[in-house]
Amino acid sequence: SLPMFLLALPAGALADVLDRRRLLLVTQGWMLAAATGLGFVTLTGRATPNLLLLFTFLLGLGTALNGPAWQAIVPELVPREDLPATIVLNSVGFNIARAAGPALGGLIVATAGPSATFLLNAASFVGVLVVLVRWRRPSEEAILPAERFFGAMRTGVHYVRHAPELIAVIARGTAFVFCGSALWALLPLVAKDELHRGPGAYGLLLGALGVGAVAGAFALPRLKRNNSTDLVVVVATLVFAGGMLALGVLQSYPLLLLAMLLAGGGWLSALSSLNVAFQTAVPAWVRARALSVYLLTFYAGLAAGSALWGFLAGRFGLRAALAGAAAGMVITLLATARLHLRSGEGLNLAPSRQWPAPIVTPEPEPERGPILVTLEYDVDPAHAADFVAALHELGRGRLRDGAYQWGLFADPATPGRYVEIYLVSSWIEHLRQHERETVVDRELKRKVRGFQKHGGPPRVSTLIAERPGSASPEERR
After folding, report:
1. pLDDT tens profile 240-277
2. What are the C-alpha distances in Å from 154 to residues 81, 157, 161, 293, 351?
3. Which residues are CB-neighbours of 282 under 8 A, at least 6 positions away?
4. pTM here?
5. Where are the alpha helices (DSSP H) in 190-252?
6. Three-class SS of residue 209?
């Protein structure tokens, strides 16, 4: 798990700055090489615990670099109206692999040995590479130069910070996996110590979770048809909490299989709904970076939760730890109840292409800045409250798209006169703001302009910070 913490944010920046298809080819090739190396080391009898950890870490590096790009390409593969179902399908594949993979690996180890297992794992990457090679990703012509690596990372974190709908998903998702990790971490111990059964029984419990996840995927569209995302996540969370409680209380193996079926459905329904709410609320230009923040918090919650519930199980017993995790899931559900999940399925986050870039002669140097933009509005005082609310919503959009400071000021001497200001770090970043505007942003601008007395656009001024020696060559001449 360590590579995910080290590389999640850099991987998101790379996936937005570079061509995602090429990045995936590199990461899948890297994992192919690492898995092949582990297979040959084991086949030749030279495997040691340190080498096993090293190759596992190398595979983890590939997984961490692969994750944000892999999730970010999903909206590129299907029409927008099919995106929610596609995200659920992606989650189904993940959960099937998570449930069936260990069982299949154990079977191959038992019949052909560990080296065959590792080499088969390596061969599995070849299929993915073939698909990626054959995929013809539509190329996008960029007018502006690509963002710099560290600047791209900052922009991604900045975007999420000023997107309340994404913060809500991250907070609720992290709380869910932090408590829910107890089931995945303690399930092997329950099978071994409480049920006194072997690996086969544990595999069946994992399989029940996977089957439940698939069943939940089929039921999810029907559940979402007449219910809000909030309600679906609440019900799914309570179902999963009930499964964890049953795992700590029940001694009947058949009843536990049934409980794991329900828990699998709750797990997939909650995480898929959260994933849909996140991905449908992020525009393409920052999608991988935003997803990297989400993945970072997700894996942090999963790892920290597993460690905590494992410690508590060692101290107070398995039943107490599972009951505590179930109770914690209900408590965090209540604590985050005010963070509403806003599904972005109806939002048009495509680039608007209708905010013309400022034409300045001579063109300022790209890195010159900061840039101060001011906009003056004349509004009917009777509509001032609605105007201020709309402009604050627009201000959050300015901050997400690259501004690092925003403010709205009223003129006390002239009722209805307002001045909006925002600061951008450089001229090139200001030009990128014009490229990042979405159709939703454009409609919000129209709404704000509708409050203008004369109905036209506000008076705009764009100023560049002036320091000693910062004059242009033309000005110096």
Report:
1. 999 999 998 988 899 999 999 999 999 989 998 999 89
2. 31, 5, 10, 11, 21
3. 163, 166, 290, 291, 344, 349
4. 0.86
5. 199-225, 229-249
6. helix
